[in-house]
Amino acid sequence: MNFDLTDERQMLQDGLRRYLRETVTADLLASASQSATGQSDRLWSGLAEMGVIGALFSEEQGGFGGAGFDIALVFEELGRAGTFEPLLEMGVLSGGLLAALGRDDLIGQIIAGDARVAFAHAEPGGRYDPCHVTTTATASDTGWTLQGRKALVAALPFATHVLLSARTGGAVRDTSGISLFLLPVDKVQARDYPLNGGGRAAELDLNGTEVPQDALVGPEGGAWEALERANARAVAAISAEALGLMESIRTLTTDYLQTRKQFGKPIGKFQALQHRMADVLIEIEQARSAVINLAGHLDADRVTRERHVSATKNLIGRAGRLVVEESIQMHGGIGMTEEYALAHLAKRLTMVDHRLGDADYHLERFIRLSAA
Amino acid sequence: MDLNYTDEQKAFRAEVRSFLDANLPTRLSDKVAGGKRLTKADYEEWHAILNARGWLAGNWPEQHGGTGWNAVQRHIFEEETTRAHAPRIVPFGLAMLGPVLQKFGSEAQKAQYLPRILNGDDWWCQGYSEPGAGSDLASVKTTAVRDGDHYVVNGQKTWTTLGQYANMIFCLVRTATTGKPQEGISFLLIDMDTPGITVRPIVLLDGEPEVNEVFLDDVRVPVANLVGEENKGWTYAKYLLTHERTNIAGVGFAKAGLASLKRIAGLERDGDRTLIENPLFAAKVAQVEIDLMAMATTNLRILAAAAAGQAPGAESSMLKIKGTQIRQEINALTRQAVGPYAMPFVSEALDEGANVEPVGPEYAMPATQAYFNNRKLSIYGGSSEVQRTIISKAILEL
Known about the structure:
By secondary structure, chain A is α+β, with helices and mostly antiparallel strands. Chain A has eleven helices and ten strands. The longest helix of chain B is centred in the C-terminal third of the chain and has 29 residues, at about 280-305.
């Protein structure tokens, strides 16, 4: 048993943490949020140059990492800095799926940050069910005709391509019959908008969009297994990001408890607050263990892996809410203000529970998987 | 023991309800129900409608142009107005300053300010908190130094709600530094147009500039604007806070919020069912409803005692804590209910006539905003921590 990082990972973590601490200022995040793409070109290319995108892919795929613990350490640091560059969607999800389904030709450009593939999978009314695909792809003489709507496609204004799921068979929530298509971003009609916690996303309207035969990625109707596996890695990523957010929030809050004085002493000297902050610490440590559990089981058999997916995301959802609400409360009025650093971190952490399934969704799923 | 309202109280409720049916503009109730942005003019319009009926000042006696209602009547009015999605009554002049002036103000102050509050000529804001004086309010540092017929005021106030709309501010200022901190505080009325006052908006978590910082730099205030006696301001401030705590439980808001939560959960798809049919979610909704049923009765027990003439003391701290917990839980469940569409933030969609479609269901973004905004409930007006200390000292005698 050894919970230490390998030397290579330790170096990546140290370098990444230092780079983000020096680069990610409140101004950078604000101007990224206000930009047309919702992202920071400077940060994105900086991360690509450091090899951070490459760390999400295995050596066979052209990267130099790709294991659960690589994903966890990258995303914990991204979370700690409060960044919202779309590494999860473009690296772990789209990139991971393209690599898994044999489209190795694009991986080099993805790792370099030049190919930016948005992931268009969720749909209106689908809530958190990853099998909920109503968008259809029908074979035509020249290729495929796409019909349907996609929801909350992260970072679309920043994308060069879109990886899109559509049904070539099966019923709405079947696992079989889901296919993936890769198209240039100018093929889709979209309305984009800002998100709570930073970045932009878009609603896609596919109204008879024609794509060529070779837009199909992987086997026709057989994308589910790869999708579920990519989803598991994405849950590991977002859970680690949440952990990083929690750590930064914890630092801000303990600093505040030590410096803010009322009734003649630092408020951190009041036992009522000490005990609550101790509970927050305990839950963050639980979150860290949950992330380790999932990162260490991403290559396990399906049921073991997926039980860990749902266990981790459930715990992260619960711990996240506690950390957000207690940190705002212990800050008092200042914790309610947009311009204080806590606001962005707290909003981003709150939104984690609205991505890739909330705590209740994963609680029910954990029960189902455990009964199987 | 009789849990029913009296015939008289029932008739009053019916009267309020039919008044709202006839007089609450749909334009305003649609905005409130839809979580849209209310303007200064919206609040003023609703105040004027209530004032025309004589129902604007629910906690003022009739001699000053108020309703003379008792605590139970005020509660019924609050329940009916929140149920009908009326804009809230802006409390600073009506619920807070009015009662202080009526009890401690000079005849000239009463004659000058009370009618202007009712008629909407003045919009008051509250200058209590400072950067260094939040929960520890008695440590206010803003100074007022006597100079002939004026006080010269210097300092900074913060968390001044809707101060951007106000033309008047009532302030706690320090006029003495000897003795206990509470003994050197005075209560001043200040015209916001006086030279030396700067207002800076503070944007909150939901993106709205709801509160402000107010900077006071050599602001000259006529001595005639002192309320009561110099250095007795703490007494008046505490009296005001007991009025701030009327209807503090927010039962009406909680009931309206619960109804909205159930509506949304009944619309949200969750696989083959709606979300309200999901047993896990339904259990959480039921849990908070059960808490609300009991809290509503705790509230009525305390109101009944107040209507019979017993001043509510530390009991209002219980109501604030429990009422806040329930409302915040309803907000959290509503945010959870809207699912992935809690994420888009399209601020312009909140403006009337902006012609910007919301992303996802129209109720989604307001649900997220309300969750973040109502974190304030456990912070303002005496944080939940301060309320617990009051209970442990005043009721438990610990």
